[in-house]
Amino acid sequence: MKATNFTAYAVSDFYQAGYSCDGHPFIADQFYVLIEDEAGRRFRHQVTFNGAQVICNEDTDGEVVFVDVRSEASAKAEALASRVNAAIKAGVALDSSRWDEVDAAYGSDAYVSQGTEASRAFQDRQAA
To answer: Which long-range contacts (CB under 8 A, 24 or more apart) does 85-90 make?
Structure first.
């Protein structure tokens, strides 16, 4: 995939890392890289970096502990974004098998031309 007009950057979303000892879901950050062109068209890299490390504590009958590793995960995503930007700047084609197209940036030309807002409104009406 030739991506000469794209810019890569690291972002995060939430994910369910598991369940705490009281049975409640443990929500953590997950970091990944997006590339976006001037029109707002975006692709997400398939590699993700979890912000919580799940450890099973055998001393407490298998109680799960969640260790905060957000700073390391964020740094890995930023490093990947830097490598992708360097490849784009050097004119290296990106491996399209590692990138999935996602929704265009909100309010961008690509967002408007895709009809994303109209599609979501239609889906909402169908669900009601």
So the answer is: 85/7, 85/8, 88/3, 88/4, 88/6, 88/7, 88/8, 88/35
Residue 27 has pLDDT above 80, yes or no: yes
* pTM, 2 dp: 0.83
- Does residue 84 belong to any structural domain of this protein? yes
Specify the DSSP element, H or E, that contains 69.
none
Domain count, the chain: 1
3-state SS, residue 108: coil
Domain that includes residue 45, residue range? 6-127
Residue 69 sits at φ, ψ, to 5 deg, of -125, 30
Picking from 107, 85, 106, the residue whose alpha carbon sits closest to that of residue 3 is 85
Helix (H, G, I), strand (E, B) or coil at 25: strand
